[in-house]
Amino acid sequence: MSSPLNTPLSNQFVCPTNSQIGASLRPDQDAKCTYLCGNSLGLMSERSKTLVQEELDAWGSCGVVGHFKHPKNRPWVEYTDKLTPLMAEVVGAKEKEVAVMSTLTSNLHLMMDSFYKPTPGRYKILCEGKAFPSDQYAFKSQALAHGLDPTSAILELHPREGEHILREEDILKVLEEQGASIALVIFSGVQYYTGQLFPMEPVTRMAKEKGCICGWDLAHAVGNVPLRLHDWNVDFAVWCTYKYLNSGPGGIAGLFMHERWNNIERPKFAGWWGHELATRFEMPPVFSPITGAQGFQQSNPSTLALASLLGSLEALQEAGMMNPVRERSIQLTGAFEELLKQSKYFVPTSEVLKRHTQSHSTNPGFTIITPENPSSRGAQLSLLFLPLGSGVMQKVFDKLVLYGVIGDERQPDVIRLAPHSLYNTLEDCQNAAKYLDEAMGHGLL
Ligand SMILES: *Cc1c(COP(=O)(O)O)cnc(C)c1O
Predict the structure, then answer these.
(1) Which of 85, 250, 303, 320 would you call most buried, defined as having the most Cβ atoms within 10 angstroms of its Cβ?
(2) Residue 251 lies in a domain
(3) How does pLDDT run across 299-332, given as a tens digit for each residue?
């Protein structure tokens, strides 16, 4: 209990109790549950709650007047101005390179529309095999929209036989060999399934050298690991804010476009919110976009969503932004990994292949498919349950909920657990490891 890792970075966050989530097997019903699911939906900050309530109050007391005159001096027309500097700092960008807008998949389509311009010689999209489904659908539909056959246009990179993680050298090799036919390189910053942190800088550098456009889906990277999009020379990036950035379910998303594109890429699907503020409300017939990422804005954003995100970003700012978050995250995830490795059900990766090929070995167990090197992962650990395809994972997962451990499952065999640097503690990791053992022991044997 005396470990500094038991003091969270922020006391802003509200965690459900065991009784609220139906953890009937936990004796301490009124205690906080073990919430390790910030990779999917971060917890609510008190600050978000306050700011959202203030906007509801402003709506109630001002009506439409609140757009320009606001009791807390946060007029809705310029509410995003409060968010962009914080967001830019989180992703390592200039303010003009960042827009807080819309949703992740929509932003991905907008950016692909601008940046994926296949020619007969250079038309491929290089991405990871088993990308998040929404991204796969987006890539395919973009290829189809250009009249291309997705099976030849989309080049999916898979880990080597028996491995789970894409090797940097393999990504660079494909770029070396096929770079000239690749129009767009787009990977996730942190892979949602394995938790692998991609080598964003070298991949971007090589993609640029080969004349490709390089974009990143930062859904699992933003708020999780420090980013330097401007310095890395990334062309574009998109992300959501409800995972590690704690903006709440369906929160407003983000988009980055490097400033070197400012005079080249102008928004094609124009909307009034991308028009310069100075003349926006004169409603001129000709669209005159804001220079940079914000020109891509289409609609006036949901103030409630902005308020919620502002609250969580201010909580992050109070905690010192991404450097302390990352530093503590490395310690917390490292400690969690050690605890999990002490389990009698833990199987080292080197053993997994052996076990898998020996059909007599049916003992339930788990391994960790996330890279061991902290520089190749963020907060999340992905546990792969054995024997593969046996249904062990689902049984363990169901039991874990009853023990008050909230992670998330990915069929058929993976449970993802992510200690969030802002609000999780070593005790959460100890509880998760302990109850995982319980779940495996009582649930299965
Ligand atoms: C979470 C996530 C999404 C979700 O997309 P939305 O448009 O926010 O619903 C998409 N892609 C990746 C890689 C994700 O991790």
Answers:
(1) 303
(2) yes
(3) 999 999 999 999 999 999 999 999 999 999 999 9
